Every structure is written in C-alpha cells, then in structure tokens.
Amino acid sequence: MSDYLFEMRGIKKSFNGVPALSGIDLRVRPGECLGLCGENGAGKSTLMKVLSGVYPHGSWEGDILWQGRPLQARSVRDSEHAGIVIIHQELMLVPGLSVLENLFLGNELTRPGGRMDYEAMQVRAKALLQELQLEDVDVSLPLMHFGGGHQQLFEIAKALAKHARLLIFDEPTSSLTAKETDVLLGIIERLKRRGIACIYISHKLDEVARVCDTVSVIRDGRHVATHAAHELDENRIIALMVGREIETLYPRVPHDIGDVLLRAEHVVCHDVADPARKRVDDVSFSLRQGEILGIAGLVGAGRTELVSAIFGAYPGHSEAQLWLEGEPLRIRSPQDAIRAGLGLVPEDRKRHGIVPLMGVDQNITLATLRHYARAGRVDREHEEREAENQIGRMRVKTANAALPIALLSGGNQQKALFARMLLTRPKILILDEPTRGVDVGAKADIYRLIFELAAEGVSIILVSSELPEILGVSDRVLVMSEGRLTGNFVNAGLTQEQIMAAAIGSASTAGPANVPGRQVHEGEQPLVF
Amino acid sequence: MHAQDFRRLFVRYKILALLLALAAIWIFFHVATGGAFISARNLSNLLRQTSITGMLACGMVFVIIAGEIDLSVGSLLGLLGGVVAVLTVNLQWSSWSAVLLVLLLGLAAGLFNGFIVTRLRVPSFIVGLGGMLAFRGVLQGITHGATIAPVPADLVYLAEGYLPPWPSSLLATGAFAVLVALTLLRRRRRKAQSIPQAAAWLDVLKLAVAGAVLAIFTSMLNRYSGIPLPVLLLLALLVIFSYVASQTVLGRHIYAVGGNVEASRLSGIRVSGVKMVVFGLMGLMCAFAGIINTARLAAGSPSAGTNGELDAIAACFIGGTSMRGGAGTVHGALIGALVMASLDNGMSMMDVDNYWQLIVKGAILVIAVWVDVLSGAKRD
C-alpha cells in the first residue's frame, strides 16, 4: 500500500506514430503540491489530458494508480468522479449564467423529477465560497460581473463542489494580476492543509517555488527529474527544462544583412474583450533587410498580437507607427500589408490559413489570383502553372494539384501556405509558429527555405515557442513577456537559459550585464531613415 | 461496379444523384397522372414555373456559398413586382422604363442589405428576417393591400411570350457550336503549354451529353411553342452565374470567403466587398423574379412572393450547396429549383391538397440534405 494519492507509471502516448509522451512518471501525496515544468510542447498538456480522462484509458500506455488502485478513466466524468479535477488555462465557465449555476454546472443538485434544488445549492455554495474567503460574493449575479481573479476562484469552488481530491492547475495565473495571484496561492496553501493535492503547471518559476513542495521537469515527452522544491533554484529548473543539444536541423546559410527595412514603434494592442488590458504594451523594434528576427516568449506573451497588428490583422484596437525603407507606412488591413510587401503565414493553420474544401492549387494562388486574371477572368492555365511551380519548389507532397488541401498533412499544408505568401513577392515575411505540428522532414524543408529567402534579401520575422528553433535560425532575437519587450539579443553565443529568463521576466538574468548574448539597446543601432 | 464505386461516383458527381432523383420524381408523376406529366405542354409550363424560383436560387447560391443567408428575398420579390405594377398601371410609365428602374431598385435594396451585414455587422439571418417583414410592409403600403391590374400587354409578354421554334433551334445549335469551340480552344491552349488535360474521350462524352440535352430540350419545347421567354432569361442567368463562379476572380473569392473567412482576409481579399457584391446580385435577381412574377400574374399582388425565400433556399440545399458555405454550384441550385417546381406541378396535376404539397416539399428538403450529409460524412 503506497502513501501516494496518485501515481503515473511509464505513461506513453503517440499521435499517428509520432511520440508525444515517452515514459512519464509522476507521484503526488495527499496535501502535496507538485510543480510541473517544461517548455512549450514538452508534453505537459498531453500529460494532463491523459490523467484527466480526455484521452480515455487504452489510448495510451502505462498505469495510473489512484489511492493505490488502478484507475481506468474512460472519460473526463470518470476521472472527476474519482476526484481529479483540472482547472484549465481558459476558464470553462458560462459567462451568462449566474455564479451559482456555474458552480454546479453539470453537477446540479436536484429534487425528484429533475427540478433544480436552488436552496440546497445556495447552502452548499455558501460553504464552498466561505472556504475560499469569498463570503461577500452574491452568487445570483451573472458570472461576467466578476473579473478573471474571481472567476479562477469560482473554478476552484466548482472543483471542490465535485469533491475533488486532486486539483490540476494549468497556467492558473496567466491572466491574473499580482494581487489576485497572491490570493490564489494563499488558497492553494489552505487546500494543501486540508489534504487536497495539487499539480501546478506554470512557466512562472517564482510561483512554483512559493507554492510547490516538489518539482518535476519534463522535456520532449520524457520525465527529466523530480526534486524537492527547496533543492532547486530557478536557474537549475531552466537548465533542466531546456538542457539539450541543438540538433543539426538548421542548415545555416551565411547571408548579408542590410540597412533597416522596417521600423515599428510604440505598438500597442488592446484586448478584444477588455480594451483596458494591453496584450502588447508599447513595443518598438526594427528589422533589417535580409535579417532573420526571432521573437521568443511564452504562450500569451503577445507575440502573435504584435505581428498581427503590424500586418493589419489584429481583431481588436491596436496602434503602431511603422516606417518601411524610411517612409511612413499606414497599414489598416491585410490588403494594405500585402500591397506594401508584407506576408504573413499565420499561427493557426486550420482557422486562419487553409480554405479546406479548395484544391491545393487554388489555396496557393488565393492571395495573388488577380495576377493571373484579365478583365476579371482567371487564366486557369497560367494559374495552374504557377501553382505547379510552387508545389515543386516547396516539395509539397500531394497526389495532384487539385486535391482538397484538407486531405494533406500539416507539414504539406504549411508549405502550401508558404507558397501562397511567396507568390506575393514579400519584402518581409512574418512566420508565426511555422513548424507547429509539422514533422521533422517538413521542418527541415521550411528552415532551408527561410535561409534561401534571407539570402535573397527577404527579411523574416519568426515567432516561435521552440527555443532551439529560435536559436538555430535567428540572426537576432526579441523576447516578449506579458506584452512587453524584455530582451533584444544578437544571436551570438546566446543561450536558451538567457532567453527563458527574459521570457519569464525574471530580472536577475535578463540585464545587459549578461555578456555572451549581447543585449542590444535600440539606441545603439545606426538607424537609417 | 460495386456499391462502393457507385457511392464514390455520387460523391464526386453529386449532380448525378440529383438527376436520378429528378428522373424518379418525373416518372412517378408521369405514371400517376396517366401520361400527362411528361408532355410538351406541361414541360413548357413546368420550366416556366421553375424560372422564378430559379432566378432567386441563382442569387441565393452565391449568398450561401459566401457563408451568409438572405431571408428577405420573397418579400423583396413581391415589393419590386408591386413597384412595377404601380409604375405601369397607376403612374402610366412605359414598361421598359419601369423595368429599368426596378432593376436598379433591386440592386440598391440588395446592396443595402449587404451594407447592414458587412458595415454594421448585423448577422445576415437577422437582416433578412427584418427585410422579410419590412419589405412586405412597404408592399402592402404602396398597394394599399389591393391587387393592381391590369399591367400592360408588353410586360405580360415577358412572362408569356416564346422564342419561336426556328430561332430556338438556331440558338441551341449556336450554343452547341460555342461549347465545342471552347472545348477545342481549351485543349489547344493546354497542349501548347503542356499542362495535363482530361482524356479526349471524356471531353467528347461531355459534349455529346450536352448536345443531347440541348437537342431534347429544344425539340420538346419546340413541339409546343418554342422556348418561353422567362426560361430563356433563366438560361442566360445560368450561363452568366456559372461563368462568374468558375472563371472569375470574384467567383473564386466568393468560395474562399465562404470556405474560410479568416484565411481570405489574411490573403488580402476584401471580404466585405465580396459580400456586398453577392448581396447586390441577390437584390438584382429579386428584381428579375419580381418583374416576371408580376408579368405572369398580369397584376401586382400584395401577397406575391410569399415563401419565395424558402423555395430558393431549399433549391440551393437540394442542389448540393454546403450549409457552412464554401461549396455549391449554380446548375445544382437550378436543378434543385426544378425539383421543387416539379413537386408543385405534379401534385397540382394529381389534385393533391395544398397541405400535402407542403408536407411533401418539406420532407423532400430534409431527406435531400440528409443524403448529402451521409455522402459527405467520411470527409471530416
């Protein structure tokens, strides 16, 4: 009989033959808080989906023991029934329903006949909220009256209403203020004293250090190390998170870097739902001709918003002052951007990239259709020829050019989207997570192309969450953290640890005193206007 | 051939399944009416009935492909038809100037709907619902709730006239010659640029089928009085809309916007511009349909076009237009309109009560889309 509440042994999971998890062991005692750290894409989310029943028992290998007995959850309901509740980064609450209705959503207390027992729920809600020191909340108000901090606590109350014994927090503080974070961490301490166990996933290592008793680090789907929290400091955790050699996936081609091509100043993006909140807060940078500029940062740091704003595609309110080749540039829509010589390969291929039912060829020519038309009529032969050329150049693997693009693999879809933008002959190509969900072969093709373009004098902005990619490809690296620019490094001797430190926003390592990757100040660049 | 091959054939050429269904419907009515359904006179009549729903379906199929919907078209058709009647009967305008003004009005009304959808960002379902009520209200206001008749004879001729047999034959022959010429030209162009092309036998087969359809169609109609003018107009619209859909930048952009609006926007397509054009064309089609409807009734009626939007939308869905946008064809929608008109026509001939007609049409719509969902289920 073990004294662990929960144990995972040798968890393996793969998607279409590509391993996402290859042997993970985790253990949590009652009343213990386990910090789980790893880079983006290390396998944390997959792991959480395994243990919360999103991936049913049988779709992965290994064992999960719950109170010493095997747990074979076939659905989220099964694992919640056992007492495992996950609190997602994106809150799973219904804004229009009252707090009370949200607390018992899917778990309603009822009277015979299925009628909601509001009295019983009110009594129970009161007790739950008291535990979280939220006595003064009026549970009959719609949820949307409360801010993100409160909503997070309601999620916890909702989990407690389900008699949770193990709470999993996935980046719980990513949208909380410092004060709200303090409250949350305090509550986790109280829960621990009541014997409730937690798994705390966060990039914010100071929080991990504050609240966790034990820290496990995973990397590339493997369990790297587990130590008592007091044995580790932030630098040690970062080293464990990244610690791998850069593979020779990046066939660096020397290329000339010219004068400043694009200068962006005071880029500000306001949150779509909450305009008072800034997703990008006064970011300025410049880009030289033929330069590959990496933008690193954690998920939610505002990188996608920054490049969308420059491309005229940010959905909310944004401001930016731009100069292209010294001339002021106004971009209000993607059309303006494309006309000015910018191209964007978006992050979310499915939602923003492909037109699924259309053929590969028509997807490729979508942005440049007018080039093949006379008096509004498309010259199909011309169009097909261009598409075939691109399919050849990009090595898009497709049975024929007219095949609906939805049938292609992610890597080949991505290459087709590259081709779409290359046909616009951009001076600046913005790539937002270009290798996400792409197999290694296609990755290598994409890197090869990036270097080819840079050698032709095209400037590249590469947004990526994969640090080896950022370091393997970029000439210079910008790092963002919570909407702000926290690092601007020339990529010479730059290390993943430095980038990670700037991305986490910890002041100890991001300062200019840090020698190998020289921190560049915008002022010292000879600006050409 | 195995069942699976059949299935694949139908998924690829949905239109085949639709034509088979249409044939089944016709044969059923032919037997049920004791041989009266497939006669020159009735087919002429049937096609004329199809033309009004068909015109609306031409516009509607673009609206639906672009990922929108327009519920106001029945009322707008009625309103525009009413305006023609008021102008010609009450105000003594000449038919031609009235027709011209109404076409412009239709275009303007469509653009107005498009403006509210794209600029004011009201969902098109709501804009259509509002227009459905408001346009009907305006119609009842200008007609004072009474039928306005009789409209001038030259207007009636638009709906009741025929292209006489020998020009009809000439037209059909000419159309066939153009098809042959276009096919040859395309083959030559592709050969010159060494682009792979369809097998020669397939092109010959396609031309042979097209020729046979043209010949049967024309000779059948010629045995009565020739091609009815509204049918001629519908055929012209079929050619124009198919051309726009398959050959032009605009057409491609309509499919792209409906297929993935974000991807289109990021590719530099002016999404709101495309949608404006689509709604504008829809309004124009309402004007054509309204004019023909008034001409056919020889009167402007305050209830004209009631439920017209539902017939047009049903025609599009029966014709294989995707509910989520991004896919569909003009000829499919027109065959859908022919299915709807055949049901009306056949059941009227069988003296089926009106309530049964509604039940059958409703059931056919749901079944048609269900079959479509079944055949497409494997794609997702």
From TrEMBL, chain A:
Entries under CDD domains matching the protein: ABC_Carb_Monos_I, ABC_Carb_Monos_II
Record flagged with keyword Nucleotide-binding: yes
Keywords: ATP-binding, Cell inner membrane, Cell membrane, Membrane, Nucleotide-binding, Repeat, Sugar transport, Translocase, Transport
InterPro entries: AAA+_ATPase, ABC_carbohydrate_import_ATPase, ABC_transporter-like_ATP-bd, ABC_transporter-like_CS, ABC_transptr_XylG, P-loop_NTPase
Transmembrane regions: none
All copies of domain ABC transporter, residue ranges: 6-245, 262-507
Ranges for region Disordered: 510-529
Molecular function, one GO term: ATP binding
Basic and acidic residues composition bias: residue spans: 519-529
PROSITE patterns: ABC_TRANSPORTER_1, ABC_TRANSPORTER_2
Name under which the protein is recorded: D-xylose ABC transporter ATP-binding protein
Organism: Dyella mobilis
Lineage of origin: Bacteria, Pseudomonadati, Pseudomonadota, Gammaproteobacteria, Lysobacterales
Gene of this entry: xylG
Automatic annotation (TrEMBL), chain B:
Membrane-crossing residue ranges in chain numbering: 15-40, 99-118, 125-146, 166-186, 198-221, 227-245, 274-292, 355-374
Membrane topology: Multi-pass membrane protein
Subcellular location: Cell inner membrane
Keywords, comma-separated and alphabetical: Cell inner membrane, Cell membrane, Membrane, Sugar transport, Transmembrane, Transmembrane helix, Transport
One Pfam family here: BPD_transp_2
Purpose of the protein: Part of the binding-protein-dependent transport system for D-xylose. Probably responsible for the translocation of the substrate across the membrane.
Family designation: Belongs to the binding-protein-dependent transport system permease family. AraH/RbsC subfamily.
Name under which the protein is recorded: Xylose transport system permease protein XylH
Organism encoding this protein: Dyella mobilis
